[in-house]
Amino acid sequence: MKQGWEYKKLGEVCHITMGQSPDGNSINDNEGVEFHQGKTCFGEQTLGVSNLFSNAPVKLAEAHSVLLCVRAPVGYPNITERKICIGRGLCALYAKEDIDNKFLFYSLLSKQSHFEKNATGSTFKAISSKVVSNTEIPIPPKSTQLAIVSELDKINELIRLKKEQLKDYDDLAQSIFYEMFGDPVENEKEWEVKKLKDTCDELFAGGDVPKNNYSKTKEGNYIYPIYTNGIVNEGLYGYTDIIRVNKDSLTISARGTIGAVFKRKANYYPAIRLITIVPQDSLLDLDYTMFALKGICIEGAGGTIPQLTVPTLKLYNIQVPPLPLQRLFAQRIEQIEHQKSEVAKAITDLETLLASRMQHWFE
């Protein structure tokens, strides 16, 4: 234990309020107290705004409380700057001793694996009030708390700025596309237009993951990535010894939040909820096609869950500007991607530093 520090249970140093859902009839969109059931509106550190309210709240979290997810997923903290109504997925911790609420936030953040290990339930993992109350955190002098918070906040701010920089590069790339080619729907520059099916060597939907030929990690012959819906982490599912696409190509997410387009290196296996596109080299550059598809308003068909189908996508119109102009655009995109990779590396380094400093202070 560091000199001048002590360890105490959360139940000793915080008022803990376990959430409870209000009557369903009290939930509305404009009257009463803002209602949060789980982490849907969580930000990096500070709670966002919900569009739900309760005019008969049961459990309240006071302003400047630290919220903690206690039902799947468990262990995620956030700070609320205002009084809110909380449901069963959350609990609120309000420090009753001399503890800075941002320091309490970082303390809980460092305990995420602890909460996950102590969660129970087969279908939905949850942590009990007893687990929360008995969890110990280090408590240094207030001046030390503030110094720790300042250090960690500075690293987080640098990470935030770098992520903003990545977004700026994405916006720049899109801006260059519109400057060179115009709106891909309006086609004000009057480029030649073709159906997507007439500009591709391949356009097909992904299939089921090969049952007996894959692993979640690279093991033995399992070296080729499997991609699923390209929304989270570019949809990486696992690895296989089977190659279905042996050329650089594009994939489009085809179900749920549809329309996310990713460029893929050759030799991979596309799984369900993905459509793979291999443009004809003589007509379309890969980078140009990716940005053109991003600019097309892709509207999925289907009931509750929108879907994009291969027959629908084949009939989409795509502009076909001169290939040298497309390749000039690709060169500019390559330069931007190089800059993005440098920024992404800086983010990784900062996140490693943050994890190291968190471990230093809280473990």
Short description:
This protein is an alpha+beta fold and 363 residues long. 33% of the residues lie in helices and 22% in strands.
Features:
alpha+beta; 4-stranded antiparallel sheet; Adenine-n6-DNA-methyltransferase TaqI, Chain A, domain 2; single chain; 363 residues; 8 helices
Task: Describe what you observe in this structure.
The protein has 363 residues and is α+β, with helices and mostly antiparallel strands. It folds into two domains: 6-140, DNA methylase specificity domains (Adenine-n6-DNA-methyltransferase TaqI, Chain A, domain 2, Alpha-Beta Complex), CATH 3.90.220; 192-320, DNA methylase specificity domains (Adenine-n6-DNA-methyltransferase TaqI, Chain A, domain 2, Alpha-Beta Complex), CATH 3.90.220.20. Helices cover 33% and strands 22% of the residues. The chain has eight helices and 21 strands. It has a five-stranded mixed sheet, with no helix packed on it. The protein has a four-stranded antiparallel sheet with strand order 2-10-7-8. Strands 13-20-17-18 form a four-stranded antiparallel sheet, with helices on one face. A hairpin with a 7-residue loop joins strand 17 (249-253) and strand 18. Helix 5 (142-181) runs antiparallel to helix 8 (323-362). The longest helix is centred in the middle third of the chain and has 40 residues, at 142-181. It is elongated and about 70 Å long. It starts with 5 loop residues before the first strand and ends with a helix. The model has no long low-confidence stretch (mean pLDDT 92).
